[in-house]
Amino acid sequence: MLNFFSMGYASFVYSSFFIFFLVLIICTKQSIAINKKYHRRVKMLIDQTDSE
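and the corresponding structure tokens:
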């Protein structure tokens, strides 16, 4: 792993990796939140149809 950092890549390569992973994490968190909201809505609809 130390050889990877000592290869002499430009700093924009490292920053692009960082930005990529940051965007990936943000998108993953938002998709999980959307999935939870959708799951709650579906559960509510199922409960409504069961009670009828």
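(Above: one complete record from the training split.) The mean pLDDT is 82.
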